[in-house]
Amino acid sequence: MQEPSASEGRRLNPAAIIVWTLESAGRFAIALVVPLLNLEGAFRLFAIAAVALLVLPSIVRYMRFRYAVTEDSLIVQGGLLFRWRRVIPFARIQSVEMIQKLRHRLFDVVELRIEAVGGRQTEAALVALDGVEAERLRTVFLRDIQAVDASAETDEPLVQLGIRELLLAGATGGRVAVIALLVGYAQELLPEDRLGDVIEGVSSAGSSGLAVVAIFVAVVLAISLILSLVATVLVYWNFTVRREGDRLVVTRGLIEHRRAAVPLRRVQAVVMEQNLLRRPFGLVSLRVVLAGQAGPDQEQQETSMLLPIGGLGMAGDLAVAILGGTAEMVGARLVPAAKGALLRRLTYIAIPVLAAVIALAFSRSLAALGLGLTTLVTVHAVLGWRSLGHRVEDGFVVVRSGVLVRRTTMVRVANIQHLQLSVSPTQRLYRLGTLWLRTAKGKPRAVDLDRPLAEAHFATLTDALLRAAP
Amino acid sequence: MWWVVSSAWATGALILGIIVAVLVERALLPVALVELVIVSLAAALPPLRYRRWRYEIRSRDLSLAKGALFFVRTLIPFDRIQFVESRQGPLDRFLGLNQLIVYTAAGRAGHIPGLNATEAGELREELSRVAGTVSV
User: Which among A128, A127, A230 is positioned nearest to A175, based on CA atoms?
Assistant: First the structure.
């Protein structure tokens, strides 16, 4: 039988050249454009040569890449020295992602990424296609699953965020990273010796100096707020989640338009997160932990977010849509940690307290600092203890922990691969234990349960595991 | 197996002590005291760990328990086992022992050290046979 070939197949849109160039050497290419315009003579030639060198591989790639669609499969081939060809039967195609990043937008093209059943990475990527062609191909590839798609498209989206919600998300989102970035940048501007002068100037100026510091801090916070707002709005613009058969389709983005499909059967756990700012308002964000994720790591982070911000009710409905179960499962009260757990945490703190007391004998200021820190640590420990909670019921396990960011993880019992109960020496002292729910990705655990309770859960889950199908 | 492991640890500690003592020429007494502590620990811990060690193959799962100071109990349903690996470190080889490691989709689930060749072979066969079979 003759091997299928795409030699008479189509080429991509010529914009592919630019897309590939920007993808592989984007930063270099951009950095060279400026010298290209400014420099003269030999340098200019050099810059031109460099840009040409960067673009050349993409030109060759464009010339050699071809794709063809047969009765039941997609064929892609390419390569000059090392020729390759890949035949992907439609039956194997699990999802087709449409991506339009900024570089695609510039030329009004779309990228199609095809993912196959059981594959760990994108099987084929058609990097630049006309919008019309992309739609046509997508329809053809998904025609086996098309029936389900068509009916599901008419359903109400599970999640749809407007600009108000996005601003709220940006305003209440974690800004530590942004602030750290700003502080780092500020340090770049102020060289070491100048910093010393600045500090001296501030402390000698007395109260007015403090005012300057206060203003500076306020400015940093304001800038970080604005940056956070802008970033959130751009990344999550028109965030929508729809259910299509056995997948959840997430679309978002203003400059970079993204459409991702989350296969429900790969979901290992659903995590609800609440930072300090959001807790009083009952706002949470929800993401999923996926096994065998395709795509590079940064994209993973963004793809797993299913609800950047929302009320507990919306999050609950979404969790039920993903994991099954009932709404009660989400809202149900969690069993708090045992009192012994608090004692155990305080035991650890006893050591620094002792050290602070000893330091008191030597230096007043040091002891004061030590006690201050100890108070902070104690408060953190108590809050941490209070945030602990768990619940084992109806084929689900829910665990909660975290002080600054409260994290509630929901796991289907069926997803548990193996079960562990650990007891550390201090836990043994207070008759405690930690239950580990080992899943294909992530390690959710219920910390510091009463030992008898932990053993009971262990037994219950053992029964449930042995009964449930994998 | 424990006594072998314990003697290995003790030997190791002694050698370390001798090396240290040779390097630190004076202050022989404190070094000797530290040595004593290390050696007694090395001698005491392995038998304790051995006694705590359990593994049980039940009708539908594998149950393990280990740890003197840090106790860990593990339960691995047969149908979650992905594969079984057998391993032999240099010490194991010297003593003619084998170690079996059981993997699930969540990674390393548990290990059973100190098996002799036949035991290891049989166990691995058995586990590979029941691995992935639906327990229902």
Answer: A230
Question: Is the ipTM reported for this complex over the cut 0.85?
Answer: no
Amino acid A194: pLDDT: 63
B72:A423 CB<8 A: yes
Q: How many CA atoms lie within 13 A of B63 on its CB side?
A: 12
Q: Which of A301, A302, A308 is nearest to A284 (CA)?
A: A308
Exposed, middle or buried: residue B37 (CB in 10 Å: 0-12, 13-18, 19+)?
A: exposed
Q: What does the pLDDT average to over A424-446? A: 86
Give the pair of three-digit tokens for residue A49: 């040569």
With beta carbons less than 8 A apart as the criterion, state whether B66 and B45 touch. Answer: no
Residue with tokens 């974690």: A174
Contact between B70 and A291 using a beta-carbon 8 Å cutoff:
no
Measuring CA to CA, how many Å separate A162 from each of A60, A210, A289, A309, B6?
A: 43, 41, 25, 11, 66
CA dist A323 and A321 (Å) reads 6
Two tokens at A437?
């729910």
> What length does chain B have?
136
3-state helix, strand, coil in chain A (%, to 5): 50, 25, 20
Tokens representing B92? 């194991």
Does residue B49 contact residue B66 with C-beta atoms inside 8 Å?
yes
Tokens 């304790």 belong to B48
> Would you call A292 exposed, middle or buried from its count of C-beta atoms within 10 A (0-12, 13-18, 19+)?
middle
Residues 6+ apart with CB under 8 A from A282: A311, A312
By CA distance, what is B105's nearest residue in A? A440
By DSSP bridging, strand A267-275 and strand A283-290 are antiparallel
Nearest CA in chain A to B104: A417
Q: Distance between CA atoms of B116 and B66, rounded to whole angstroms?
A: 19
Phi/psi for A424 (5° steps) reads: -85, 165
The A residues from 422 to 441 touching B (CB cutoff 8 Å) are 422-425, 428, 438-440
Q: Which of A418, A428, A440 sits opposite B74 (nearest CB)?
A: A418
Please state whether the predicted TM-score (pTM) of the whole model is above 0.80.
Answer: no
β-partners of residue A287 are A271, A305
Burial A4-39 (b: 16+ CB within 10 A, else e): eebeebeebbebbbbbbbbeebeeebeebeeeeeee
Place of tokens 């989206």: A157
Phi first, then psi: give them for residue A69, nearest 5 degrees.
-115, 125
The total number of residues written for chain A in this structure: 470
What pLDDT does residue B50 have? 66
In the predicted model, what is the mean pLDDT of chain A? 79
A414 touches chain B (CB under 8 A): no
Q: Which two tokens stand for residue A67?
A: 């794709």
Encode pLDDT of A289-337 as tens digits: 877 554 444 445 555 788 888 888 888 888 888 888 776 666 678 888 8
DSSP-assigned letters across all residues of A211-243: HHHHHHHHHHHHHHHHHHHHHHHHHSTT-EEEE
